[in-house]
Design a protein that fits this description.
The complex is a heterodimer of chains A (357) and B (189). Chain A is of the alpha+beta class and 357 residues long. Chain A is 33% helix and 17% strand. Chain A is built from 13 helices and eleven strands. In chain A, helix 3 runs antiparallel to helix 13, helix 4 runs parallel beside helix 7 and helix 4 packs across helix 8. The longest helix of chain A is centred in the N-terminal third of the chain and has 20 residues. Chain B has 189 residues and is mostly beta strands. Classes of the chains: A alpha+beta (357), B mainly beta (189). At the A-B interface, helix 3 and helix 13 of A face loops of B.
Chain lengths: 357, 189
């Protein structure tokens, strides 16, 4: 088990994005000021009590902000350190873990998923089909986003890494990127003995301390946002990670530096799947949405619980990233993002229009 | 077909009225207030539901009997504009419908009425970065009530309240607006 000191020293460059001051070029300054005005207006319209966000350009933080409240009733402001359930952003981590296995020769994405899980009824469905959301019906033919099916990849990661999913996630990604505030499962706040046995005492103490900064959950109703229960506390390949925008910026920097997987593997993850039946381009790669907007490639994922939501949007060719986390479903719930067009999100649209096109 | 029958009936009722010869035609320039407006469009400045001044004009055909007709156009400038992110906007309504009033012989000095009708709204909005432009028209139904007070053979006054509703129950595809208006009338017989 690694100590916290080691964690912080590992991949020091990944922390540069947040350790240095927020730097905006003169070209960015006007766009950033305008972006924040739009996001604040959209936050109110979408009934998001608290939102934390970061924009990274060329590995530097150009915007880092908390807007609104992590605890609406006690008027505790949201900050960049505020923790959120990131929901389906977890899927991008699963993608990386699986591609690590492929690089190490412990997994082929074209193996049948039935070897690892009985959750997918189609006997011919492969790991790749589940990872690309094309396992339903005739596997490979159509894209149908399905978080429940993605859950089946938990067993694949466990098998190919030779340790439980959360342990693999912590060791292979969170620790290597020095994501010291991220928690692989809300239930680590008060773990069962079995769960506690996966981690060293220092890590467990760190996780418990981080969870205390978790934003309170709210659901969007017609009249606004109302206090709600937490979403499920366990973790799997589809959902369950807790993190903040500072840690996700480290993750982003590590992805760009190919710390976890090779550039070639990352490009595979960011390449649209092709329907095996209709030969058309599908909106999803290996654990990431991929689309073109005005000739620019966008890779992204969204997260959606009714109580939390998230948006992670990368423009690899511009070395540009937006990460937004919120303590209601407002970032995602009103927009049909599962269909594969990030531009239906007014938050994403604002970012793309101001910084990309 | 049923809609055609309704309009045929209404037209017959208006044109075929035995009191047509004694009908009043009213020209009504008016000013008013629009409020409690809901649209499915992004309200970036959070002002669309606030009261906004409206301007417009209408023509009302008011017979001595009970059934008349009206057509009205209104213009609500800056409906989405709070001078933060929205730099220009407006809502235009164009409606027509049937008017039911008390016969003139019952109430010669005040002509209260109710109306129902339908029409179109046209919504435009431009934000400062041009990210969320709106230029949309959709159908609405409307209902209202008011009163016309003839002051002289040529001049009068009218006050009215109208409610316009369109779209579906889905909040992203809904239009609601209340309008209260008052104005002088010029009438012809």
């Amino acid at each position: 088990m690694r100590t916290r000191g080691v964690l912080v020293s590992v991949n020091l460059f990944t922390a540069l994005a947040i350790l240095g001051p927020t730097v905006a070029s003169p070209d960015d300054a006007d766009a950033i000021a305008l972006f924040e005005r739009y996001v604040e207006a959209l936050r109110r319209i979408a009934h998001v009590p608290g939102l934390s966000g970061i924009i990274l350009r060329d590995g530097r933080t150009v915007w880092l902000r908390g807007l609104g409240f992590e605890d609406l009733e006690s008027r505790i402001p949201a900050t960049p350190d505020t923790l959120y359930h990131v929901a389906s952003l977890t899927k991008t981590f699963t993608s990386t873990l699986l591609l690590q296995c492929v690089e190490r020769g412990t997994l082929s994405l074209d193996e049948r998923i039935a070897r690892y899980s009985s959750a997918i009824p189609e006997p011919d469905a492969t790991v790749r089909h589940v990872l690309t959301h094309t396992s339903q019906g005739a596997p490979g033919a159509i894209f149908r986003y399905d978080g429940d099916r993605f859950f089946a990849l938990t067993a694949v990661v466990t098998a190919c890494h030779g340790r439980p999913f959360r342990r693999a996630l912590a060791a292979e990604i969170l620790d290597r990127a020095a994501m010291i505030d991220s928690v692989p499962g809300h239930d680590l706040e008060r773990p069962t003995p079995t769960l506690a046995a996966l981690f060293d005492p220092a890590s467990l103490a760190r996780y418990a301390a981080a969870v205390r900064r978790l934003a309170l959950p709210y659901t969007v109703s017609r009249g606004g946002a109302s206090r709600s229960d937490y979403p499920p506390r366990d973790m799997n390949a589809a959902t369950g990670l807790l993190s903040n925008v500072v840690d996700l910026a480290k993750y982003d920097a590590a992805i760009d530096a190919n710390v976890f997987i090779s550039r070639s593997s990352q490009q595979q993850a960011w390449t649209n799947a092709i329907s095996t039946t209709f030969r058309d381009t599908l909106p999803y790669g290996l654990g990431w949405f991929v689309q073109q907007e005005s000739g620019v490639r966008l890779v992204w994922h969204y997260g959606q619980w009714s109580q939390y939501s998230a948006l992670y949007l990368k423009v690899p060719d511009r070395r540009l990233t937006l990460i937004l986390l919120a303590n209601s479903g407002g970032l995602s719930v009103a927009f049909p993002m599962a269909a594969g067009d990030v531009m239906v999100s007014p938050f994403a649209r604002t970012f793309v229009k101001l910084f990309v096109t | 077909m049923s809609r055609l029958r309704v309009w045929t009936f209404l037209l017959t009722a208006v044109v075929g009225s035995p009191r047509l010869a004694g009908a009043d035609w009213l020209l009504i320039p008016f000013i008013g207030v629009s409020g409690r407006t809901e649209t499915g469009f992004l309200d970036l400045d959070d002002v669309v539901s606030n009261p906004h001044p409206s301007y417009g004009a209408g023509v009302t055909f008011l017979p001595d009997g009970m059934v008349g007709a009206e057509a009205e156009v209104s213009w609500t400038p800056s409906a989405f504009t709070g001078h933060d992110l929205i730099e220009s906007s407006r809502i235009i309504t164009a409606t027509g419908g049937m008017v039911l009033t008390l016969p003139k012989r019952w109430s010669p000095r005040v002509r209260p009425y109710v109306m129902i009708g339908a029409g179109l709204i046209h919504v435009t909005s431009t934000d400062i970065a041009g990210i969320f432009p709106v230029d949309s028209a959709r159908g609405v139904t409307c209902a209202g009530a008011g009163a016309w007070i003839p002051i002289s053979p040529r001049l009068g006054a009218r006050a009215s309240v109208r409610y316009l509703h369109g779209g579906s129950a889905d909040a992203t595809n809904r239009f609601k607006m209340w309008q209260a208006a008052g104005g002088m009338t010029v009438q012809f017989r």
